[in-house]
Amino acid sequence: FPIMTEPSQLAAMRILTTMYSSVIITRPDILPQVALTHVNLCINQGHSALAAGAYISYGLFLCRVPEYIESGYHAGQLALKLLEQFNAKELTCLVYNQFHYGIGHWKVHVKDSLTPLLQALPIGLETGDLEFTSYCCCNYCAHLLIIGEPLDRVIEKQAPYFELLLKLKNEYAISYIQIWRQLSLNLLGKATDKTRLMGEIFDDKQVPQFHIANNYVLLFSYHLAKTILFYTFKDKAQAVENASLAEEFVVGYGSGAFLAVHKFYYSLVLLAPFPTAELCEQTDCLEKVAANQLKLKKWAEHAPMNHQHKYDLVEAEKARVLGQLLEAEEFYEKAIGGARDNGYLQEEALAYELAAEFYLARGMDKFAQLYLKEAHYHYQQWRAVAKVEDLEQRYPQFLAPKTSREVQTVFTTSATRMASTSTQYRASTLLDLNSVVKASQTLSGEIVLSKLLKKMMQIVIENAGAEKGFLLLPKQDDWFIEAESYADSDEVNVLQSINIEKSQQVPANLIHYVARTHENVVLHDATQKGSFIRNTYILKQRPKSVLCAPIVNQGQLTGILYLENNLTTGAFTPERLELLNLLSSQLAISIENASLYNNLEEKVVERTKTIEAQKETLAAKNEELATTLQQLQATQQELVESEKMASLGNLVAGVAHEINTPVGIGVTCASQLDLLTKDLAQLFDSKRMKRSDLQKYLNSVNQISALILKNLNRSADLVKSFKQVAVDQTSEQQRNFNLKTYLQDIITSLTPKLKNTSHQIVIDCDDNIVLFSYPGVFSQVLSNLIMNSLIHGFQERPAAGQITISAPRNNEKGEREKRLVLRYSDNGQGIPNEVIDKIFEPFFTTNRQGGGSGLGLHIVYNLVTHKLNGTIHCESVMGEGTTFIMEIPLYIR
């Protein structure tokens, strides 16, 4: 490529390079223009060392869009090569910072940015690039927090570079790192208020200055840090508010690593209050989460080590709130594994915590306890003292609380000793946990009792190390064998209902003991040790290892497992017993659900027999009712279609009337333009055309074409408006529509009915009222009411009448109940008191001789109450007019 040598062009390159950081901080909206101008200058005028700054800026700009990450990364690599080729030390700090702040992490682990950022510091100090030396410092310090480094080490490693920032006096960089250092201190338990960014490093009284300076980066960072704190400590409302504020300023942050962190937390905080939110809020939440997830998924395709576990955890939470339990379990496990494999300690802890809450909400306390202990352990590893204490306060039944001294002792224990004592145990625990989760998923998916009992016994025999096993269920104050399984056979005998008192297969006394005490009984050598060596069954059958375990959920005994191993003593180890304990809740829940389903099936069979017996008696009546119903439905459909066709007829007439004027003007203008063109052509052919003739023609053409364009646009707007009303009137689909705009469209469609009258229609409602309802039904209701006023209300009124349609936004009742209060009024002749209670009855009319059918207001009433889920009533004063008051939901579910 050619080399740029022109001084003015080089000066332009320097100016663009210098202004970049100011643009991204205060005017991010012009960033694309700056980046493209920079690159175009290189392409058109040649390259120099300054081209490295151009391509790094261009790469940052591209990486903001997930679809262009590959191109952005390529531009960043080109900048690094140009830096090396021109040996441009003076640009090293700038290029290294921009690449490792906003480009590299989209392809490689964030931790890979730490060394290059530090390598740039001495070069920046040597060349005098103090601005980007400061930025390298603060981005290094921020990335330490992102990658899951233990918080005490984060503070320690940040210290010398924070001191350097103070000496360099870059206020923006100082404020940026103060925010993230204070977040670390809050989590370390070194802040008076753990959710307020205020302490020895940062004071939130600085934030108004960020607004004055229009500093998007600092405002984004502040609200993201607040989001993390509020979400961590379970303040859902404040978390949502701050995440939304961060979203407002994210455009100024560029393509840094905290962008993905924000999308991750934004989705989590939106999903947290989802179960108690209104339907419209839930819809909005899912739309925003879907948009965030689309980006996270794209980012994960490029850098799964940074983003896949974030995507998976949001998917788990989304599945949780939507009731997709199996999908939620799978995504929690994926998120935990992904965070662990890539070293994101804080997000591994969070995934364990959310999974624990998921299992706790399902009543699976033992699962929840196991996951909570994992979360507690990982938060300890991250040194988040405040969060460790928060968990202990929230779940004292699962976690033994520690004093601050004890917590600090855990954190200062030798890492080597901790690893040596815990690695083997934790690996075993996780292995067992996976087995339990898979078993739980298998059991939770089965509700047919016979199939459930087979799967249950197979799982128990496999995981408990038993040679044979029995499941006993209570019935009529006694215990019965309902499932029998053996390790050397795939067959499971179920639903035998053998009373244990009459069976020789289990020790009845032992079963009753466990049923009474709800305690596990483990006999490691049944004939030699324990309280049951004299038991008749034990003496006769001489089993070696025995386990009898209650199946309990929330204090209720659902069943009992009896297991034997006659091959070895001590077969039922504490680990196997713990595994069964973990499964116990799921076993109990599954048995209860399957039993309920089985009882329901029996009741259905019984009820079916009763119904069959009654069928013959009811058959004739049903046939008669069916015929009547068909007649009513046919009549109803005819009425509805009649109303629709009448509305469409009005609509077509409205189109013809309204569009006639602009089309007529357009045709006239086109004719005039044709004449002028022919005149000019004659002058040209006769060689008599003068400059003034051409100028006059051009002036006329400009005026005429502007007039044609204006009227064609008017025609297009009218067609669009009429088309929407027509579609709505022939459709029963719900959609969002603006009340005021749609009222105007309805009135326009009735123009043929109004054009020969002097009556006026006034719309008095807020511009911003939006409904999610049936616009076609809404149009039909308003059209009927307007026609009712024209035909009946103004029939004997010679003077101009007025119809007013109002919908006050600040109506307290409507706002409180999320309902629209719509008032339709005319100043016509009114309705007599003696008939006002009958106006909504079918076929009631006071104008039979005038052709009134008596169905108009009846149809209005049915549409409002049945289709729009609302209410309507009428108030009228003779000689003054009539008012219809409708209350309908803003959102129809």
Give an overview of the whole structure:
With 893 residues, the protein is of the alpha+beta class. Among the domains are: 85 residues; 82 residues, no CATH class; 93 residues, no CATH class; 126 residues, GAF domain (Beta-Lactamase, 2-Layer Sandwich); 155 residues, Histidine kinase-like ATPase, C-terminal domain (Heat Shock Protein 90, 2-Layer Sandwich). It is 64% helix and 10% strand. The strands form 3 sheets. It has a 6-stranded antiparallel sheet with strand order 3-2-1-6-5-4, with helices on both faces. It has a 5-stranded mixed sheet with strand order 8-10-11-13-12. Strand 1 and strand 2 form a beta hairpin. Helix 17 packs antiparallel against helix 18. It is flat and about 130 Å long. 40% of the residues are buried. About 4% of the residues have low confidence.
